[in-house]
């Protein structure tokens, strides 16, 4: 019962916080937040409780490899968005994510090789996403936007953690990175603020994948030695610290949001 309540409460909290922060500080900050393990972190924590430390530790390698697919999603969407509408861009990006995930699942991933591979992909994607420096228009959001994001995210967490034992640790990790929020945030930003704003959003997601990488490196290497509480506490603190550094390092390059 306690774990089920955790599933119901933790994801809405993270998604609500990220959504409201993104609306206040713009797409670049939104991207930094969306790229954090907002769903994969709770999923990993739940897997450790429900299926054991070894299972969650092995799944962490899948989480790292799966974030490669997320970076591919960001790159393809940002490039497609320069000339295509949001629906076509989303279709191409999700297709690229699924194909990349399928290819990654053909290998057996260990924690360090997965970490190194992800860092290399982050470096390539970060340099390849179009960069823009001018201001973006503010936009209004429908009333159902935030509740819909929370419902979709919470449902995804519950379903994946329920069937994780059937999927196995690696595939559970790979699938957990499916860009639910990437799609939602990207399409809303693209349709309401344009391709330049969505490029900043996706660039932020790729940057925050560095924090994500260290989070799951710590989880994968620490769980069986340090236990649940200490491992996730350290991973969370490191993730927040790295994200803070990225925020202040890139703050001067972020355009100001023009408010009506």
From TrEMBL:
Top-level taxon in the UniProt lineage: Bacteria
Keyword tags: Membrane, Transmembrane, Transmembrane helix
Transmembrane portions of the chain: 55-78, 85-102, 108-125, 146-164, 170-189, 201-223, 229-249
Protein name: Uncharacterized protein
Organism: Longilinea arvoryzae
């Amino acid at each position: 019962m306690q774990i089920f309540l955790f599933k119901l409460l933790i994801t809405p909290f993270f998604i609500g916080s990220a959504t409201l922060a993104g609306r206040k500080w713009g797409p670049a900050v939104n991207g930094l937040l969306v790229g954090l393990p907002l769903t994969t972190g709770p999923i990993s924590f739940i897997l450790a409780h429900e299926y054991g430390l070894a299972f969650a530790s092995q799944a962490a390698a899948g989480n790292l490899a799966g974030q490669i697919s997320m970076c591919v999603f960001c790159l393809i969407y940002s490039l497609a968005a320069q000339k295509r509408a949001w629906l076509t861009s989303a279709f191409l990006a999700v297709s690229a994510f699924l194909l990349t995930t399928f290819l990654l699942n053909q290998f057996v991933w260990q924690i360090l090789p997965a970490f190194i591979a992800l860092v290399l992909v982050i470096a390539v994607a970060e340099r390849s996403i179009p960069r823009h420096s001018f201001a973006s228009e503010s936009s209004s959001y429908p009333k159902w936007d935030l509740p819909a994001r929370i419902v979709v995210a919470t449902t995804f967490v519950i379903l994946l953690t329920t069937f994780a034992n059937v999927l196995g640790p690696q595939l559970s990790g790979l699938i957990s990175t499916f860009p639910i929020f990437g799609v939602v945030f990207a399409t809303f930003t693209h349709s309401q603020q344009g391709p330049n704003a969505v490029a900043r959003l996706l660039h932020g997601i790729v940057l925050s994948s560095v924090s994500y990488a260290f989070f799951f490196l710590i989880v994968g290497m620490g769980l069986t030695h340090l236990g649940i509480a200490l491992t996730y506490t350290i991973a969370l603190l490191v993730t927040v610290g790295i994200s803070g550094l990225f925020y202040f390092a890139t703050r001067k390059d972020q355009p100001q949001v023009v408010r009506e």
